[in-house]
Specification:
Blueprint: E1 11-13, E2 29-34, H1 59-84, H2 95-99, E3 102-110, E4 123-126, E5 132-137, E6 143-146, E7 157-158, E8 167-170, H3 172-177, E9 186-189, E10 196-204, E11 210-211, E12 229-230, H4 231-241
């Protein structure tokens, strides 16, 4: 609780402090959120909150190294995605896109038993806000995806954890860029009574980036499905919708 999250969402979030789309109950997970180091010049830049090094010796350096390597992997994946969308492989490497990206990392611990019929989840149904998420997990089952969110009732299927492999989620902003060619992954986590741990690394473009349909993803018969939007505007609204007021913990 000494590193309870700040107004930029960096730091520790207790169990039930985050809500997913259209949920009544908070998620049965706790997390530690690490953002980008920086000034207060942008909505998402703030000095990170770190545990006392006397308590966790070397932990900050390990997290910072992991952050660098995860970003390198995401940028490599972005080049493959660019080619798939019929633009140059380095299309997303411009300063206004991934040249100065917003990158966040969330260390997650899930607990308890989920009951979707009562709205109780490890993490409720939601899509990720940004371009993509790189997810490292342990071997405990729990992550489910829904391939078609518009079909009722929704069909959920478990995603197996493969040792030595990452899970990559498509985010909302990539769906907007691709005009729906790449669908943002609706997913949730169900607790089964076991402790479950994962590390989610979120990649977003620069906060000033205007996200709009790529020229190669639209035509006369397939106009843009989403209006252009500034990255920081979209992220700010989604974060505000997903957080519980933690002032009660500070009293």
């Amino acid at each position: 609780m000494k590193v309870l999250k700040n107004e930029k969402h960096q730091g520790y979030s207790p169990v039930l402090s985050q809500i997913s789309d259209n949920q009544i109950h908070g998620d049965y997970k706790e997390s530690f959120f690490i953002g980008i180091e920086g000034s207060n010049d942008t909505p998402f830049c703030r000095a990170n909150i770190w545990p006392n090094p006397d308590v966790l010796s070397g932990w900050q350096a390990t997290m910072e190294k992991y952050h660098q390597e995860a970003l390198r992997v995401c940028k490599a994946i972005a080049r493959v995605l660019a080619l798939a969308l019929n633009v140059d492989g380095d299309y997303f490497d411009t300063p206004e896109m991934l040249g100065n990206p917003l990158t966040f990392m969330r260390l997650l611990h899930y607990e308890g038993m989920s009951d979707p019929s009562k709205g109780i989840y490890g993490c409720g149904p939601h899509s990720d806000f940004g371009m993509m998420t790189l997810l490292g997990t342990d071997s405990v089952m729990g992550l489910q995806i829904c391939k078609d969110r518009d079909v009722k009732p929704r069909k959920w299927e478990y995603i197996l954890s493969i040792k030595g492999a990452y899970i990559v989620n498509i985010g909302d902003l990539l769906e907007r860029w691709s005009n729906g060619i790449f669908k943002s992954t609706l997913h949730r986590v169900l607790g089964n009574g076991q402790d479950r741990y994962s590390i989610a690394f979120f990649l977003q473009p620069s906060h000033d980036c205007i996200v709009e349909c790529l020229p190669t993803c639209q035509s006369e018969n397939n106009p843009p499905k989403y209006p252009a939007i500034k990255c920081s505007t979209y992220l700010t609204q989604r974060y505000q919708d997903s957080q519980v007021d933690l002032s009660i913990y500070k009293k």
